[in-house]
Design goal:
173 residues, alpha+beta, Cytidine Deaminase, domain 2, 7 strands, 24% strand
């Protein structure tokens, strides 16, 4: 009796993921469709999870969401009193090297979602995760503004490609 052979893709068929189009036909998924599906899965894993017990899921989500962007985005991860994820919200979009962030708008969104804590997030399209002096000042400004309404800033993460820098791990929060 012969051993069953392993599957291999030696035919001209593409081993990529397939999607069903409106007509009911299957076709290979485009890279953007694969990434969007992965983001939906990761976002589903984050919502309602305890933030501090699933830092890897957060990092994976952020790497896919922000790691390859060519412009800066400033986002907020809203948390409840038990640090479970309420929602990830992209607040501001900037240029290749900067974005304007308005503390008033962040406080307003935080109160609207009844958040107890936040994780601040932005990306550096340059690929360098080191925080600028402006990043540090902004973090302290937001931390002070949010403290006035009893909301804690848990961390500020900088996404630079595959690298993610944590202000909390660096002792900057």
């Amino acid at each position: 009796m012969s051993q069953p052979s392993s599957l291999s893709f030696t035919s001209s068929l593409d081993p990529s993921l397939l999607v069903c189009d409106v007509a009911g036909s299957y076709r290979p998924a485009a890279p953007a469709e694969v990434l969007q599906a992965a983001l939906r899965v990761l976002a589903g894993q984050l919502r309602g999870t305890e933030m501090l017990s699933s830092p890897q899921a957060v990092r994976d989500f952020l790497r896919i969401k922000l790691g390859t962007l060519e412009h800066e985005v400033f986002a907020v991860i809203h948390l409840d009193a038990q640090h479970r994820v309420i929602e990830y919200v992209e607040m501001f979009r900037g240029t290749v090297s900067q974005t304007s962030v308005y503390p008033r708008e962040i406080v307003k969104e935080t109160l609207a979602r009844n958040s107890a804590a936040l994780i601040l997030v932005h990306n550096h399209p340059s690929g360098l995760a080191e925080p600028s002096r402006a990043d540090e000042v902004l973090t302290q400004t937001l931390k002070s503004a949010l403290a006035l309404v009893d909301v804690r800033v848990i961390d500020h993460l900088i996404v630079a490609g595959p690298t993610i820098l944590s202000f909390a791990e660096r002792g900057l929060i």
